[in-house]
Every structure is written in C-alpha cells, then in structure tokens.
C-alpha cells in the first residue's frame, strides 16, 4: 500500500513534537494489523487541520451483531433508520490506512452516546436516532454504535496513526419524547415555545423544533436527577458509581447542580478517561454562550488530567480543541454572530474555531478571490483562531455541487483554501447527495445527505477511484504542509495561476507553491522571488523533480495541477 506521507517538507521543527456483542471480524483484523504505521511526523496545528467528518452509523459496519438494540425494529422512512455503521468500523478503516492516505489528521464522528429507544413519526418519515443527536443518556454509549472499550480502542488506534479524535457533543437538548422515552422533568427542560430565530431570546430560550425538549442551559438553579435516569442506572448496576462521581465533581468545582453542569460533567468524562482531543459542539447559538466557556474550562481540565495520567500517549502541548456549529456563521462575520438585537463573540467563549457556512457559496468565485479573502481574514480579525471549511455536510440542504459534477474542483477548493478543512464522508468518492428513493417511498429532508458510504462504487467504478486518488494527493500535501491551511497566501502569477503559501511560527517554517488550471503538456510556473534559481523542487502531484531556472520551473505532463515543495 502506498504511504502518502511522502515528499520532503521544508520544516525546521522541534515538536514536543445486552445489548452489544463486541466480536470483530477476524479476517479483517488479520489484514489491517499488517499495515505499517505512518513513519513521518509533521507539525500539527488546528488552524490547518484536515478533518474527516462521518456519521458513525453510515460509514462502515465493523460488527453486524450490534445492528439492532432496544427493539428498534419499526419500519422507518428511507434512510431514517439504523444501517449498521459503528465504532469498530471506523477503527478498521484507520488500520487499513484509509484516513492516512487522505492526509487526514483528525476524525470527527457523529455522537455515540445512548440515543432514545423509540422512533418519531415525522412528516419526513418514521425516524430513529441513528444520527446521534437525540440523547437519552449521556453517561453511556449506544450499543448500536459500540462500547466504551471499543471507543477507547478507536482513540488509541487513531493516536498511533497520528490522527486526533473530535467527539460530537450535544448540550442544548435531549432526544424527542416517544412512547419509550418520557420527557425529562420540567426543571430540566422546556417544551415550548418553538424558536422563531428573530432575536437572541427567540433563538436561545426555546425548542429548536417541535418535540425536542430544550435544556435550561441558561439556569444555575440546582435540580435533582430524573427518577427515570436513576432507575435506569440502578437496573444497569451503576447507580452508586454515577452518584459518587457526581459528588466528587460538584465538590471539586463548586458548581450548583444545574442541568448544564451535570451534562458538562458527563461529556468531559470521555476526555478524562479516553484522551479525546476535541469537541465539535452542536447547536451552539441555541445555548447561552456562558455555558460554552464552562464546558471548555472543564474539558481542558479533563484533557490536562488525562495527559498527566498518560504521559507516554501525549502528542504534544496542543490545548483541548473546541469547534462550534453556529448555524449560518460565515467567515465574513469575523469574530461575531449577529442575532439582530445582539452580537456574540463565540471565539471569546471557549471556541478555537467555528464551522464556516460560507465556503459553499464562495466556491462559485475564482480561486484567487477565495484564497486571498480567507488568508486576509484569518491573519487579521481571526488571528490565532480559525474556521472549519466545508462544501457538503449532514444537514446543509444546499451543498456545493450536489450533483457531484466536478469532484476534482471541489477537492481543489476545499483542500487548498486557508483554514481547517472538513471532508464530509463520501466527498472524496463522489457519494450521491441526490438519491430519490421510489415514487411511493421518496427520500425526504436531510436523509438524502446521509446515505451509507459508497464503498462498492470505489471498488467497481474506475472514475470513483480516480476521484479518490486526486483527493488523496491534495489531502496528503495539505497534511504535510502547515503552510496550506495555516500559512499566508500570495499570488505569484495570474496566467497560468500560481500561488505561494508561507508558514513561519518559531521553530516551524514551511513554504510551498501551487499551480492550478494549468495547461496540459508543457507548462511554465513562475516562482521568482519565492524560490531562487537552482532550487530543487518536488511536484508531489506528478512525483517529478524540477530545478528553478530563470525564475520558473518547467513541467511536461497531462496534469492541470502542480504541488511544489522543496526536494530533499
């Protein structure tokens, strides 16, 4: 298997640098254990990370024996039930080198805590909590996704491969109410009004949608644990343990026993126990921003404690990472989100980064327009912060290129735009975002964005494999060069289009040149003033070495892209 951690990077670096059956497929383990670990370490920064986002249930089924739990057997709308993906499946793909080949250095997967047991009858079809955002119990994993031991193994395996783990967390709401899932006590949640999003109050003190109880995250009033939760813990034989841990948490912190602090304790337990590297935080703008500062404080405490307890497993001194989903936030907003009557700076409330909803529309402009805009903002208003760019996602009904007509250009935009990148599972294999279902049973709503990963097409369609190889080359180059995501952008030539990126932070220095929309055949790339004459460069896209002469490098191939780094 090729190792895409190739090429020589210009770095001067000093890195400190039941319910579920857990049997795995023995033949898969034998295959993946023979894959060598990545041998090359490169500097890491969340500002330029290459993040892979997947829905746990829709990525890879590593253990078919855990596919059905809690009698979740009701008929659902198309793509609205569990389909078998699990934690073991993610771990398998790490061991196979799938993420390494894509240059991925962080994996964000949808929530894996226990979901409501029942299903909801919606206009879009009967639905289970396959997506992970309908929590029943924050303290334990849902057996459909796997066990805590399997999650621990996932984190350890990812870390062995130089990949950090971002856990998706929900503080804003519980799961919907069903016949199997009673509403939480009225001291914990509100069930009305439904948000109208007109101003701050009608966005934060309301239910996001009908039948999605909203946690009183703005409250500091002490509440008792729900009787249903206590009974559940008792039946599972862990009541005393949970109560003792809560007692220690509240004694240490001095927090009141308000709903948000219970949940913060439960969420940060995964950091303290497993070494989770970061949180992707759901529905950020629907929660009083002060709660996020408190979550970050406790998560960083837990992360520091885990590092003290596991010094041999620590990557470096990178702090705990939090990226927020402030729905509708765009990089043009700089540090604030505008509620009409109030502006909030979420970067000042625990977040290193926010998801950027703007790139999908910016992608319609020229490369230079995009790259210059993002570089300018990230090195001024958002200096030392970042955005997480995406083109498609699990709940954006208007993605870039929904027909997958140009997956090559999508890769160029996402992988080369300054900021962190978020590959949504299947971007790299042109997984369909426009499935229709049947006339009698159409696929409705966001389910169309959430089909199972198209592994079979990758094996059977040459075009799909060609698309993946393009994403791999770009992803690997981004991974190996902090300058791409975290560096400063400068256009070197307009036609053909050539630009440079430069990263300089203490002991870590990096510089690269990229050419896009190049002519096929013979081509000349202007690098004068950036790479001096006589400099030997390596084009990682064509795996060709060239020497700068008269301020230019000459290439002769059929590629329309060049990725130039200093050769060894």
From TrEMBL:
It catalyses: Endohydrolysis of (1->4)-alpha-D-glucosidic linkages in polysaccharides containing three or more (1->4)-alpha-linked D-glucose units. This is Alpha-amylase. It comes from Pricia antarctica. Pfam families: Alpha-amylase (PF00128). Its EC number is 3.2.1.1. Residues 53-478 form the Glycosyl hydrolase family 13 catalytic domain. Gene3D superfamilies: Glycosidases. InterPro entries: Alpha_amylase, GH, GH13_cat_dom. GO terms for molecular function: alpha-amylase activity; cation binding.
